[in-house]
Description:
By secondary structure, the protein is α+β, with helices and mostly antiparallel strands. The protein has helices spanning 29-40, 70-74, 112-121, 143-148, 191-201, 227-232, 235-240, 259-266, 310-318, and strands at residues 17-23, 45-47, 56-63, 78-86, 88-90, 99-102, 124-128, 137-138, 141-142, 158-171, 177-185, 206-216, 219-220, 253-257, 271-272, 278-286, 289-298, 301-307.
Amino acid sequence: MTERAPRTRVQRRPVHGVLLLDKPLGLSSNDALQKAKWLLRAEKAGHTGTLDPLASGVLPLCFGAATKFSQLQLDAPKTYEAVALLGVTTTTGDAEGEVLERREVDPAQLTPDRLAAVQQQFTGPIRQVPPMHSALKKDGKALYEYARAGISVERPARDVVIHALKLALTQTEQALPAIKMIVTCSKGTYIRTLGEDIGAALGCGAHLVFLRRIDTGGLGVERCITLAALEAMDEAARTAALEPAESLLAQHVRVTLDSDNAARFLSGVRRRGPWPDAPAVAVFGDEPRALLGVGHIAGGELIPDRLLSPLEIQQILEGTPRLHTS
């Protein structure tokens, strides 16, 4: 019996920043994260909320100090492009499920006025019943586990917000009638369920056949890189492809402190200044310029919330990824 060669151990290193990944179809968010982490030889990594394996598109991956701010993207509005095939409903709400029902669809009945009425119906605060094929838990078990066992359990409807919705009649590659959707929505929205509900409102049923996330919290797909492109790079180029941690803080008010106040803030001490109240503040030191952490301002006090460590700041300054504007 031939002995297997020992597996080469990857030498991990401190890596700080954000990789804006264009996740491919068929790969789970965690698999994508582990692949990128291996390619970068990063010590610490996390993603900003899962993107379904059947969806492609924007998946920000956080490394090192940036993991402290990953929750911000988890809570951020998301924008999706989706296509729902009309006239067919499935057990999962997408193309992976078994067909439940087929109905005839008359595209002539799907007038611009009718689409506009349905579009308005599903814009703003709405309630959704989460799909059985989801990772939500009931009595400690994921809903998809019940679904695989052929069990349907009661799920309470949840409040979500559709910030913007655009519907247009289209066709699939097989020339079948479909609806194209561009959706900007709150955390917790199921696009599969939205597609099903829109199909029901149109009187013919529907299921998703295409789903792509094109923006999360202002981070657009045009700024993203694929795993294949990352793999083709050398290590220096991979590191250069990272955005700095502050790219996750674009919606934060920015405050810059002098060296004395920066050191005190970094120690967790509140600072007083002529600042208006603000719930979300990105705090920087000025010499050298470096992100110190995030906080909030109340009654003229800058109050620390999440801080970088002095070691993390030193490592970032020694190899700071630059903001990419293209």
